[in-house]
Amino acid sequence: MNASPPVETHWISRSAFQIVIILLALTQGLLGLALYHHVTFWVVVPLVLILSHLMHGAAVGLHEATHGQLRQNRTFNEFDGILLGVFSFMSFSLYRAAHQTHHAYFATERDEELWPFTNTKSSRWVRILAAVSELTLGLITTPLLFLRAFLRKGSPIRAKRIRRRIWIELWLMVMVWSLIAIAVFYLDIGRYFLWMYFVPAFIAANLQTWRKYIEHVGLTGSTVNSATRNVVADTWMGRLVSFTLLHEPYHGVHHLHVSLPHAELPHHAEKLQPKHPDEHPPFPSYSHAVIHMLKSLRNPRVGAQWHASTPAS
């Protein structure tokens, strides 16, 4: 859809990603010092949790890069996207190609990002198993979800140039992680790797999945706002969370105006107000939204196509 006229935003809001990365680096530095000096477990754990949230924010940067909005310079945008993808076990070009189906065929059976919840032929237990595995093992299952879109018969990713680039990025990821594994082994820094990368990355991947589910799973409306949960925080803490997630909680605005920079999304919050009976008003916090989403996990579905078919059992 066409973007709304540009809105003047504060430079801090526009710099959300850079601020997240700076805070991430500082937190990792503090965590490294804590591990080096064998500081108490009760200091390490809060730092790991903070780092997990900041890694989640950095992962949202990958999403921004797919829309060409992470950096104004296209080359830098591509570089950052590939780099973020490597450390998320994701090919940037694969994520971009699959994510395009999420916008082009939003909440329909051709939406690769929300499979199998959009597929009316998938059984309830397959969808429940997919939800449980993705919500608890997101670091593994999310990359596999995108690889499925790439490798399956009838893949929507057909352009030879894009497929070749995806293969190159996948091999790059294998080489980078092989070098990291060798370095961790020979430098004997497994403890640092565990606490400074693996544990927070594992948590961050699950947070990413929970956010995706909060945004869409369980909603079977035919409009953007009836198939999207939005969070418009009413507290300073909630607004801080939104800022560090690059304003992703205003998700419906992003779907309505895909070319809007993330800093402008809050300026269009009025577009999230219900206009149809099956639309929900924005939730005041993620805790309210997650409670609403959890009810749907007994039979997780997405999209209006479920109303035109008999649910699989």
UniProtKB/TrEMBL annotation:
Membrane-spanning residues: 16-35, 41-60, 81-98, 125-146, 166-186
Keyword list, A-Z: Membrane, Transmembrane, Transmembrane helix
Keyword NADP assigned: no
One Pfam family here: FA_desaturase
Domain Fatty acid desaturase residue range list: 41-284
InterPro entries referenced in this protein's UniProt entry, alphabetically: FA_desaturase_dom (IPR005804), Fatty_acid_desaturase (IPR012171)
Gene Ontology CC annotations of this record: membrane
Name this protein carries in UniProt: Fatty acid desaturase domain-containing protein
Originating organism: Brevifollis gellanilyticus
Source taxonomy: Bacteria, Pseudomonadati, Verrucomicrobiota, Verrucomicrobiia, Verrucomicrobiales
